[in-house]
């Protein structure tokens, strides 16, 4: 099966090994050690790590479409945010009558703006299964419609990138509108519990962290499964010579659509896990700059490697956390310089560096990782 | 007939989707049929009332001056370019003008491009794998597994095109001639009913040309082959029937000897000494 | 300055109309007392105090009133002396004695008490000053004064205005005065004739007066007013359409300006230049810097900023090209990553070195205000200049790309670098020059934008997305496309805005772009044919 | 406890909000420096812990958690936008921290852990409208704002208030624009139109941040002067004006609880300190800075009163604490965690300052729950024992669920 | 052969693609005023050698001397064109989005005489280029593109013309014509031509001397008449 194939692969085993090891170490250090211990991992750190893992999953999703399919999506933040909103709506409904105004049905911001009844699109979000399904379906459906339109008309390259950007930009503006019924600029916040667990306890946080780790593992395996399958090679073929692929009898637009939708769903899952951990979802996740940032993580980690995307996302966000803390006035210099230096000195990103290491030590030709020569914008 | 039984057996890959058994209806003779085709680009008539018929199993050579419209004709057949007017039929059932490139390809029309185009990031082996006749829809492709017989087939072709040693190298590093061979290999993997081969021997040595000639002649009969080439030696060695295109329409048609003695052809194409 | 004859006349008029409120005794007040009265006046009494000054005939009276209107009259806390503030920036203010005009040097703000004025008083003041101006020699001043009087005529001055109409030699000014009078008459007396006078007027005040008449009980008045309004409405519609078009063009030209540099660096060279916005920002800051260097001459500074802004941004562009982009040849997508980093650095640099706050860029006199076509249609001057500037920049760029070797060489280099070099084209030089050109043009956009919007560290961020959108919508690599796309998107946006609102209009435009690209996957002016497919 | 008392500063130093928030960070640092120069607090040094949430709302929550959980700060001064406060709120409540929020906001909130030192709508919007109505005689209203909660709520309150005052619905025009809106041509033209209906018209602007510069520019260029249609702004302060050529704006209004131009010794001293601290002769002060000044001093006083920095003790001690404000009066912390403030209306001058034209006769206490919104009319907040409730419904005589829960948790 | 008459003298040239050694200690002399034909099977390194001469690939070691005095390996790519080397690469490499005329004009950059117009001779040789002056390069048919590539190289009026399989994709009568042009230019202008060609008849007819490369090494060279069937069998057949 295509999903089990990656499991036999050394690189995937290594990745999963490291990931699960990290999950266990963090859990143990968090639970077993007393707070005063220097090795103790605080709840704060656990949540922070959870956030990084969400971003990592998002980056993997972007790498799937960008690295292997050649679609530079500058709008993946939209899928992430939609997943996040689906989760946020569920969490809002879970508040029930514990809101400030005590309305059993309407979230606070609706009471506040004099809404009389729940808009239809909020129906069902009080049920976990429905909301979780929407986490996948909402971004998936958007990706399906958008992708169908775009790929069918053979929009490619920068044109595609820019309309993905327009998509997320339009959604951002729309979600900013208070009339939309998603809380406007303030978004959704003040969550209480998820599946009956109080969100404000360390145990729930740890649970979410572990769930995110598992989601990342699954997402990684799914992506890896796709890229190592024949479909993955067809994707690369589409990336490098779209027209030629068609003449071999592949329906390029369907391949693109399939991969794009899968990627959007993964992004949605990442968003859904992100929201309860950071405690807020607001339209700024739709902002084009955020989407560009995701691409930057991937590029920094190393495009078309998947694990590179994970490294890039974690590294950049860790750097952000550290820099904003230790040099609040100058952290942008450091981050900017990091981007510039990596691009100039590590053409293949950090993954490229690792690969070079590995090559020079064992000189074995690893899995046929494709280094792209022609670019999507050519 | 068998299509119905196949439709019923939904658990299998539909055989009729694989090109070898494509339901091309050739009972009425020609496998490819172009009538009154016209194409113009910004007012320039590249194809001008072109009529052409290729019989099933035929090996046809098409020659003609640069810019005569040979490549454009192939573009039309494969769905890359839409003609302004005219009709193009594959067998007597399929109107190619209504179909998309992948549909046409899965019907069983394979093509080698004039400028060799291979997937540079993929290895030689993977290039061949992708070209292999198979169910090319998304999910079957996702779950596809390499069976020994597939591997054998690829190895076989690798040998034919003499690229065994480079099988695991990315196709991007191949030399020009090697890419030509790889493209031919991909065409072979596709097992199409109709092969459109645009300048196969450009950049090949004499010896290689001979091999290519052998290869193409051996295909003819089972498959139909249309070859475009400027190397007269090569054309002569394979040609049965030759069509000469000029300014977008047929200038002459016949055996190689007939054509090469046609004064018009000599004037516009061959030059004095040919 | 001697007291002009008219002032005596004016004085008499005022005396008559405000008889009883201004007693004869106040006439003889010393200048000190006049100012004292103003300083001590409770809000209710300020009116009287102003009038007292206006009618005092003191040679500085006008200066006082103007200073008062500008909030420049203060009282020294310790001595009670009334001073005029000459410079009110910072902690220490430069003051002059109100009575003598003697410059008293700087004085701590702590020691001064401002003599308060508010809008209501300012309105009265404006009326009084306008009345004074009606006697000026210069027709333009009189006309402005008359225009100013629209809606400001009240019982106090109506007689005087009527009188002026008789005396006024200039027809234009007379019409204005009649209009002003008519507004008063419509509002206060409901005169039917006056409605007639106003029926052709496009001035908002006239409409205001008519609207108030529509609300009246009297059917005749109501009908007349409605009819007058209807005829005005008719004209207004046309004017509104013209105005919307102008708004569209103006927004469009801003988009074009912002995008045109990107059309070079991204469209032609293929560098996904995320720092483009920051290059625009540099141009805007150059304008600010120039104005700091040349205080008091904002116009000159602005003009000098055009070459300076170009230069600064071009140099920055060269620095970016040399330090980063040259290492990314053949990896266009990675330029996104690197230039994103550069953009972060530039933004923070401005924040740290200059300030996180917005900077003030002054609009020179000749660029502020608007070109009045009629009372309902006036084209704002700053935007008019920007439209012209955008077209100018576009033309210049077009010429460079079409007429010089640079245009040809840069396209050759981007299409096939190795081959271009094999043909002897100095690719490195071409890269530097082109990038400098694109960046310089971004700088020019910054100079222009400094006249429209904030000059701050976020300036660039606000334009980068739109710029990419415009370039791509127009068709990458096509300068005409950028022009047409910018103007189109701007106009669509402005056409939609009145009925959809600003947010929705923007959303619709974005959706429009998405759908349009479906129809034309390579933008407005696509590269057609085999060549484009490669 | 030994070691310094840690004061968290949670203001964006980068991103879109850096424009406004950087000065607030500096203000807190200055206040801390001054307090230390005066011998610290409870004999201990104060130490600022500054982080940069980078105008990113989720990051605000994360940074708040970092400050409270990792750095273990004793108090946080921070936030500007409502959304950032909403994002931080659950964190300070969960970790039982103290947050002083210095910006005017939409109200409708009272948290046990948050002290609102900026104006609630009744301390800014309503008096401003009263002024326009009574002193200027405005009858027709444009409520223009950026599309987010603060303008939405404020406008909602104002709309109800105006209609209560007998203003007809067609005399109110409401308009929302996106953040950073820069093309105001159409809207200004609409306002001009709206103002030509024969009634005195004014614009009540809740336009946020950067969008103001192009807005005012367009007003000036389309020839709308303050005498025709005055604009009263709730988000435009000295700092915003420092980036605008104010020449054409003279006479437009703003409503705040403090202006830099206020003629009081406390203010002049503060300005002197500020200029000295920043080393910039042209540095300006503004209302949120005063709010931090008040908030900081209140906290200091409460800590002194409680003789500990313990959050619960300080929370109890601070209610009723009175400190001088910068306008020559006093501010008191009310039981609903809002403070008393004077309301000032100022006119823009050509030097980028405001000249006060009107002022409430006495200070106004901030309302957590507006009297003009149906949902909150009956709610009050009182954090003193025994009520300890942020949203007590006087009609039903019970505390809203969430607050009740908190109260329980607190015991 | 006297040294003066060498246009190009290549000594001990080594080239690598990453780790794969493509050219091995390769020597090659190209006499002035002659047409030298380089032959060899697919993938032996002919194109690579041409790229090394043009500077598109860097050489590991060895020397390439041009016209006796210039060491080409030390010259930047652009400079080589300015020295008078015209290059017609394999695969045409025309600029697809430039018009035919613009493609030709790129060659004007490195002409020493600062000429601004395209020499009429180019159009005479390839009339189709004049006819299609305003069409984009990429729209041309394969053979037309090949003609354009040759024309473009001639715009430089080079001293040394490098042709990498110039006849590929061109109709027979024009192929012959190209051969004749080469001869004419050699005779009239003293042009030196370095030709890569697989087609024996063409090589035999228009070249003066030959060199055979196999696996990156030069295996044989000599006057074209000396090209024996033996050599062909050994090196040019598979
Ligand atoms: N998109 C296009 N725009 C303009 N002209 C075109 C376009 N495509 C093809 N042509 C022209 O149409 C003619 C036919 O081109 P085509 O490629 O079919 O020729 P060909 O017979 O394959 O020639 P060759 O033997 O040189 O490959 C040529 O003159 C070419 O310039
Ligand atoms: N960029 C590259 N990276 C790695 N290897 C390469 C690269 N380009 C070419 N090669 C290899 O170098 C060898 C020589 O290639 P070259 O193109 O010089 O061959 P050629 O003699 O011109 O062949 P042909 O007759 O097919 O054009 C080939 O085996 C090819 O696979
Ligand atoms: Mg062809
Ligand atoms: Mg070759």
From TrEMBL, chain A:
- Alphabetized UniProt keyword annotations: Cell membrane, Membrane, Transmembrane, Transmembrane helix
Segments for region (Disordered): 358-378
Q: Which branch of life, at top level?
A: Bacteria
Principal location listed in the UniProt entry: membrane
Q: Where in the cell is it found?
A: Cell inner membrane
Q: Which InterPro entries match?
A: ABC_transp_permease (IPR001851), ABC_transptr_urea_perm_UrtC (IPR017778), LivM-like (IPR043428)
State the membrane topology: Multi-pass membrane protein
Which sequence ranges are marked TM in the entry? 12-33, 39-58, 65-87, 127-151, 158-176, 206-223, 255-274, 294-318, 330-350
Query: What residue spans carry the Low complexity bias annotation?
Result: 363-378
Query: Which NCBIfam families does its entry note?
Result: urea_trans_UrtC (TIGR03408)
Which protein is depicted?
A: Branched-chain amino acid ABC transporter permease
**Organism phylogeny:** Bacteria, Pseudomonadati, Pseudomonadota, Gammaproteobacteria, Pseudomonadales
UniProtKB/TrEMBL annotation, chain B:
Mind listing the UniProt keywords for this protein, alphabetically? ATP-binding, Nucleotide-binding, Transport
Which InterPro entries does UniProt cross-reference here? Answer: AAA+_ATPase (IPR003593), ABC_AA/LPS_Transport (IPR051120), ABC_transporter-like_ATP-bd (IPR003439), ABC_transptr_urea_ATP-bd_UrtD (IPR017781), BCA_ABC_TP_C (IPR032823), P-loop_NTPase (IPR027417)
Q: Tell me one Pfam family matched here.
A: BCA_ABC_TP_C
Q: Where is the signal peptide?
A: none
Residues covered by the ABC transporter domain: 32-272
Looking up SMART domains in the UniProt record yields: AAA
Source species, domain of life: Bacteria
The entry lists its GO molecular-function terms as: ATP binding
Q: What is this protein called?
A: ABC transporter ATP-binding protein
**What is the organism of origin for this protein?**
Marinobacter zhanjiangensis
Automatic annotation (TrEMBL), chain C:
UniProt cross-references to PANTHER family, sorted A to Z: ABC TRANSPORTER PERMEASE PROTEIN, BRANCHED-CHAIN AMINO ACID TRANSPORT SYSTEM PERMEASE PROTEIN LIVH
Tell me which species this is from: Marinobacter zhanjiangensis
**Location(s), subcellular:** Cell inner membrane
Q: Does the keyword Cell membrane apply?
A: yes
Q: List the signal peptide residues.
A: 1-24
Question: Which Pfam families has this protein been placed in?
Answer: BPD_transp_2
Q: How does it sit in the membrane?
A: Multi-pass membrane protein
- Cite the source lineage: Bacteria, Pseudomonadati, Pseudomonadota, Gammaproteobacteria, Pseudomonadales
Q: What is this protein called?
A: Branched-chain amino acid ABC transporter permease
Q: Which family does it belong to?
A: Belongs to the binding-protein-dependent transport system permease family. LivHM subfamily.
What keywords are annotated for this sequence in UniProt?
A: Amino-acid transport, Cell membrane, Membrane, Signal, Transmembrane, Transmembrane helix, Transport
Q: Which residues cross the membrane?
A: 245-272, 300-320, 384-401, 432-452, 464-487, 499-517
Automatic annotation (TrEMBL), chain E:
Domain ABC transporter, first and last residues per copy: 8-238
In its UniProt record, a GO molecular function of this protein is: ATP binding
Q: What keywords are assigned to this protein?
A: Amino-acid transport, ATP-binding, Nucleotide-binding, Transport
Q: Which family does it belong to?
A: Belongs to the ABC transporter superfamily.
By its UniProt entry, which NCBIfam families does this protein fall under?
A: urea_trans_UrtE
What protein am I looking at? ABC transporter ATP-binding protein
Native source organism of the sequence: Marinobacter zhanjiangensis
């Amino acid at each position: 099966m295509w999903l089990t194939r990656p499991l036999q692969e050394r690189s995937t085993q290594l990745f999963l090994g490291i990931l699960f090891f990290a999950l266990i170490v963090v859990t143990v250090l968090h639970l077993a050690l007393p707070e005063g211990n220097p090795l103790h991992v605080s709840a704060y750190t656990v949540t922070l790590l959870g956030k990084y893992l969400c971003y990592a999953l998002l980056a993997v999703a972007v790498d799937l479409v960008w690295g292997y399919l050649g679609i530079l999506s500058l709008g993946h933040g939209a899928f992430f945010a939609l997943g996040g909103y689906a989760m946020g709506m569920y969490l809002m409904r879970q508040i029930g009558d514990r809101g400030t105004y005590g309305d059993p049905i309407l979230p606070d911001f609706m009471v506040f703006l004099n809404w009389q009844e729940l808009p239809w699109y909020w129906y069902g979000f009080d049920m976990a299964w429905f909301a979780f399904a929407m986490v996948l379906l909402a971004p998936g459906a958007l990706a399906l419609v958008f992708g169908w339109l775009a790929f069918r008309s053979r929009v490619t390259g920068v044109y595609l990138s820019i309309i993905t950007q327009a998509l997320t930009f339009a959604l951002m503006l729309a979600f900013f509108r208070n009339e939309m019924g998603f809380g406007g600029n303030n978004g959704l916040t003040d969550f209480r519990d998820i599946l009956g667990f109080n969100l404000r306890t360390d145990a729930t946080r740890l649970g979410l962290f572990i769930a995110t780790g598992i989601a990342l593992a699954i997402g990684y395996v799914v992506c890896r499964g796709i890229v190592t399958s024949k479909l993955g090679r067809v994707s690369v073929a589409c990336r490098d010579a779209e027209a030629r692929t068609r003449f071999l009898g592949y329906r390029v637009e369907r391949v693109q659509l399939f991969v794009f939708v899968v990627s959007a769903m993964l992004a949605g899952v990442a968003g859904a896990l992100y929201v309860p951990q950071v405690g807020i979802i607001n339209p700024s996740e739709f902002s084009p700059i955020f989407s560009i940032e995701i691409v930057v993580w991937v590029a920094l980690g190393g495009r078309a490697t998947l694990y590179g995307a994970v490294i890039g996302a974690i590294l950049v966000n860790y750097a952000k956390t550290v820099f904003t803390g230790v040099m609040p006035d100058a952290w942008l210099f450091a981050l900017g310089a990091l981007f510039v230096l990596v691009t100039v000195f590590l053409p293949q990103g950090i993954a490229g560096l690792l690969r070079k290491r590995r090559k020079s030590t064992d000189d074995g030709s690893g899995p046929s990782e494709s280094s792209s020569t022609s670019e999507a914008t050519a | 007939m068998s299509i119905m039984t196949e439709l019923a057996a939904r658990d299998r890959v539909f055989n009729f989707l694989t090109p070898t058994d494509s339901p091309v209806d050739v009972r009425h003779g020609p496998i490819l049929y172009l009538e009154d085709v016209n194409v113009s680009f910004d007012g320039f008539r590249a194809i001008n009332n072109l009529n052409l018929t290729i019989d099933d199993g035929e090996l046809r050579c098409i020659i003609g001056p640069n810019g005569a419209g040979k490549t454009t004709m192939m573009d039309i057949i494969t769905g890359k370019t839409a003609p302004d007017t005219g009709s193009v039929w594959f067998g007597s059932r399929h109107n190619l003008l209504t179909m998309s490139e992948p549909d046409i390809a899965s019907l069983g029309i394979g093509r080698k491009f004039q400028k060799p185009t291979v997937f540079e990031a993929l290895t030689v082996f993977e290039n061949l794998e992708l070209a292999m006749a198979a169910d090319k829809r998304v999910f079957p492709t996702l779950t596809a597994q390499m069976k020994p017989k597939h591997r054998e087939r690829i190895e076989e072709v690798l040998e034919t095109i003499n690229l065994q040693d480079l099988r695991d190298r990315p196709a991007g590093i191949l030399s020009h001639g090697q890419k030509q061979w790889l493209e031919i290999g991909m065409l072979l993997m596709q097992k199409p009913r109709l092969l459109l081969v645009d300048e196969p021997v450009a950049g090949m040595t004499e010896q290689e040309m001979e091999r290519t000639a052998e290869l193409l002649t051996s295909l003819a009969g089972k498959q139909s082959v249309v070859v475009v080439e400027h190397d007269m030696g090569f054309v002569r060695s394979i040609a049965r029937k030759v069509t000469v295109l000029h300014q977008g329409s047929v200038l002459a048609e016949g055996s190689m000897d007939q054509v090469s003695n046609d004064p018009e052809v000599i004037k516009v194409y061959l030059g004095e000494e040919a | 300055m001697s007291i002009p004859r008219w002032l005596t006349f004016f004085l008499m008029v005022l005396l008559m109309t405000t008889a009883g409120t201004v007693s004869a005794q106040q006439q003889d007040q010393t200048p000190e007392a006049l100012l004292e009265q103003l300083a001590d006046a409770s809000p209710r009494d300020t009116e009287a105090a102003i009038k007292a000054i206006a009618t005092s005939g003191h040679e500085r009276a006008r200066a006082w009133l103007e200073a008062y209107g500008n909030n420049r009259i203060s009282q020294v806390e310790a001595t009670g002396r009334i001073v005029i503030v000459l410079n009110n920036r910072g902690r220490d203010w430069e003051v002059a004695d109100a009575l003598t005009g003697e410059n008293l040097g700087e004085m701590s703000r702590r020691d001064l008490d401002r003599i308060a004025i508010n809008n209501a008083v300012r309105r009265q003041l404006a009326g009084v000053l306008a009345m004074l101006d009606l006697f000026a020699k210069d027709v333009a001043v009189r006309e402005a004064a008359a225009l100013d009087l629209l809606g400001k005529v009240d019982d106090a001055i109506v007689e005087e205005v009527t009188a002026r109409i008789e005396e006024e030699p200039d027809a234009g000014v007379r019409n204005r005065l009649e209009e002003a009078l008519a507004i008063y008459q419509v509002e206060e007396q409901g005169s039917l004739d006056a409605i007639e006078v106003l029926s052709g007027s496009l001035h908002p005040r006239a409409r205001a007066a008519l609207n108030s008449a529509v609300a009246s009980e009297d059917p005749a008045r109501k009908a007349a007013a409605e009819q007058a309004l209807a005829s005005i409405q008719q004209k207004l519609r046309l004017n509104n359409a013209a105005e919307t078009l102008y708004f569209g063009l103006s927004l469009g030209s801003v988009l074009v300006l912002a995008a045109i540099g990107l059309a070079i660096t991204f469209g032609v060279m293929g560098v996904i230049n995320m720092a483009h916005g920051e290059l625009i920002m540099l141009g805007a800051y150059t304008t600010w810097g120039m104005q700091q260097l040349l205080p008091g001459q904002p116009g000159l500074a602005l003009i000098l900023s055009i070459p300076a802004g170009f230069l600064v941004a071009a140099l920055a562009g060269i620095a970016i090209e040399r330090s980063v982009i040259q290492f990314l040849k053949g990896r266009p997508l990675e330029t996104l990553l690197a230039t994103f980093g550069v953009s972060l650095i530039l933004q923070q640099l401005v924040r740290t070195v200059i300030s996180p706050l917005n900077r003030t860029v002054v609009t020179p006199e000749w660029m502020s205000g608007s070109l009045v076509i009629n009372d309902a249609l006036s084209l704002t001057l700053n935007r008019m200049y920007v439209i012209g500037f955008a077209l100018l920049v576009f033309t210049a760029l077009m010429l460079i790309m079409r007429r010089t070797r640079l245009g040809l060489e840069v396209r050759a280099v981007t299409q096939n670098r190795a081959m271009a070099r094999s043909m002897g084209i100095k690719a490195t030089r071409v890269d530097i020059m082109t990038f400098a050109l694109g960046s310089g043009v971004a700088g020019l956009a910054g100079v222009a934008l400094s006249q429209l919007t904030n000059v701050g560290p976020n300036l660039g961020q606000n334009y980068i997305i739109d710029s990419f959108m415009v370039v791509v919508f127009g068709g990458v690599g096509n300068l005409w496309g950028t022009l047409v796309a910018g103007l189109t998107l701007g106009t669509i946006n402005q056409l939609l805005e009145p009925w959809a609102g600003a947010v929705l209009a923007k959303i619709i435009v974005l959706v429009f772009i998405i759908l349009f690209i479906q129809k034309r996957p390579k933008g407005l002016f696509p590269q057609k044919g085999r060549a484009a497919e490669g | 406890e030994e070691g310094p008392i840690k004061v968290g500063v949670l203001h964006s130093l980068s991103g879109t909000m850096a424009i406004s928030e950087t000065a607030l960070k500096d203000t807190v640092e200055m206040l801390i420096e001054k307090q230390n120069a005066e011998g610290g607090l409870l004999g201990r040094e104060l130490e600022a812990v500054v982080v940069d949430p980078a105008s990113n709302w989720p990051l605000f929550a994360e940074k708040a958690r970092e400050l409270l959980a990792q750095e273990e700060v004793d108090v946080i001064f921070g936030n500007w936008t409502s959304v950032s406060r909403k994002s931080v709120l659950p964190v300070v409540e969960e970790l039982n921290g103290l947050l002083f929020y210095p910006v005017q906001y939409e109200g409708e909130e009272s948290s046990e852990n948050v002290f609102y030192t900026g104006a609630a709508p009744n301390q800014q919007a309503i008096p401003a409208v009263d002024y326009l109505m009574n002193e200027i005689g405005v009858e027709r209203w444009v409520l223009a704002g950026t599309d987010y909660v603060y303008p939405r709520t404020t406008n909602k309150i104002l709309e109800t208030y105006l209609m209560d005052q007998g203003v007809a619905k067609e005399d109110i025009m409401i308009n929302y624009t996106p953040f950073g809106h820069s093309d105001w041509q159409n809207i200004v033209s609409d306002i001009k139109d709206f103002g030509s209906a024969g009634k005195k018209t004014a614009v009540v602007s809740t336009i946020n941040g950067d969008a103001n510069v192009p807005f005012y520019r367009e007003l000036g260029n389309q020839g709308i002067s303050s005498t025709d249609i005055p604009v009263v702004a709730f988000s435009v302060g000295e700092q915003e004006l420092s980036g605008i050529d104010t020449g054409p704006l003279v006479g437009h209004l703003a409503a705040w609880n403090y202006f830099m131009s206020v003629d009081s010794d406390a203010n002049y001293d503060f300005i002197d300190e500020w200029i000295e601290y920043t080393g910039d002769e042209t540095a300006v002060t503004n209302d949120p800075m005063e709010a931090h000044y008040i908030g900081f001093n209140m906290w200091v006083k409460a800590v002194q009163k409680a003789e500990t920095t313990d959050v619960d003790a300080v929370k109890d001690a601070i209610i009723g604490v009175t400190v001088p404000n910068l306008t020559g009066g006093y501010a008191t912390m009310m039981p609903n965690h809002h403070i008393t403030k004077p309301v000032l209306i100022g006119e823009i001058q050509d030097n980028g300052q405001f000249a006060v034209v009107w002022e409430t006769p006495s200070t106004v206490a901030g309302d957590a729950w507006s009297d003009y919104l149906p949902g909150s009319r009956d709610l009050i907040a009182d954090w003193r024992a025994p009520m300890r409730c942020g949203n007590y419904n006087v009609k039903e005589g019970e505390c809203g669920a969430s607050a009740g829960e908190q109260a329980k948790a607190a015991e | 052969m006297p040294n003066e008459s060498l246009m190009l003298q290549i000594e001990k040239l080594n080239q690598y693609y990453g780790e794969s050694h493509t050219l091995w200690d390769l020597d090659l002399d190209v006499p002035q005023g002659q047409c030298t034909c380089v032959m060899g099977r697919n993938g032996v390194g002919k194109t690579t050698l041409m790229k090394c001469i043009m500077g598109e690939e860097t050489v590991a070691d060895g020397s390439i001397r041009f016209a006796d005095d210039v060491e080409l390996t030390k010259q930047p790519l652009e400079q080589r064109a300015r020295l008078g080397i015209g290059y017609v690469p394999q695969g045409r490499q025309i600029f697809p989005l430039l018009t035919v005329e613009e493609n030709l004009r790129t060659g004007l950059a490195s002409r020493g005489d600062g000429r601004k117009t395209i020499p009429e001779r180019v159009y005479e040789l390839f009339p189709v280029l004049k006819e299609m002056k305003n069409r984009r390069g990429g729209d041309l048919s394969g053979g037309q593109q090949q003609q354009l590539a040759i024309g473009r190289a001639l715009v430089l009026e080079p001293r040394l013309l490098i042709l990498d399989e110039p006849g590929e994709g061109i109709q027979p009568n024009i192929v012959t014509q190209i051969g004749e042009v080469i001869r004419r230019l050699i005779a009239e202008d003293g042009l030196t031509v370095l030709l890569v060609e697989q087609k024996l008849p063409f090589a035999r007819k228009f070249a003066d001397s030959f060199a055979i490369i196999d696996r990156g090494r030069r295996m044989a060279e000599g006057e074209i008449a000396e090209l024996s069937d033996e050599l062909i069998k050994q090196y040019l057949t598979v």
